[in-house]
Amino acid sequence: SEQKPVTAGDLHAEGAMTALLKDALKPNLVQTLEHVPAIVHGGPFANIAHGCNSVTATKMALKLADYAITEAGFGADLGAEKFLDIKCRMADLHPSAVVIVATVRALKYNGGVAKADLNNENLEALEKGLPNLLKHVDNIKNVYKLPCVVAINAFPTDTKAELDLVEAKCKELGVNVALSEVWAKGGEGGLKLAEEVIRLCEEPNDFSYSYELEGSIEDKLNQIVQKVYGGKKVVLTANAQKQAKQLETLGFGNCPICVAKTQYSLTDDQTKLGAPTDFEVTVRNLKISAGAGFIVALTGEIMTMPGLPKVPAAEKIDVDETGKITGLF
User: Fold this and answer.
1) If I label 223, which of 82, 93, 144, 236 is the partner at 20 to 30 A Cα–Cα?
2) How do residues 302-325 score in pLDDT, each as one tens digit?
3) What is the C-alpha to C-alpha distance for residues 144 and 238, in angstroms, rounded to an integer?
4) What is the pTM of this model?
């Protein structure tokens, strides 16, 4: 009834939690098919969480190789925004370059093509969907001031005309395109991309954040909506306004913001494709992740249970009379 935050310590649960996490705190070292080391540590989705691996994993990788590449999931509005505004700020990391991964299929989808028809050449739809990619490029170059390359993840159905169009549009923004054929050819299919990344890493950059930590929660949300999503402003529901006031009173006002929103659109409405402008983003809920040190803002219809299919995998699993389990894969 006091509406004060409850900590793990208040519940005397900190010892048990630490015991559970003791080994989980250590990153996993795995390797790719071509024996390249990869460090896996934390795998949160960028639509409902911060979308990056842990600071521990990144700092360890930086000590183990000349080049460390890390993934920040779901676009420059979600994964990259959180990686740069939250993780890099907290860990004092300064990225050298950014790879923006795109597919011709996704761009045609953003141009209004139904999923069933994405295999057919459609330059008109591609042109209509390209502003979505160009907005992500613009964010990296002009908001975060980092050099970038667009990696086209090649599909067998992509045509030369489609690939040429993407390249021409990116060139207009002064960004190179590298065709990544890693899926088909392994490491050899990524050489052009690697060469461009190395070239970009040698250029100095003026890395900056999209917002400063000082200022109200609403101010910071407005900066993200306007600069990163391309929208007009944020709207806080009455509930969210009350929560913002409460969090600021509790001393959490200067925390970075982790927005939970759909990955299918730059807006908070998954049906709005391309690069919309002049839209509002509604925040219905604000809560503090005190351990992580950021405020989570929930927008739209986003559910915070990740990646659940319409039909659960459990429905396909069974055991026959001999005891053989089926349906696991």
Assistant:
1) 93
2) 877 766 778 888 999 999 999 999
3) 32
4) 0.88
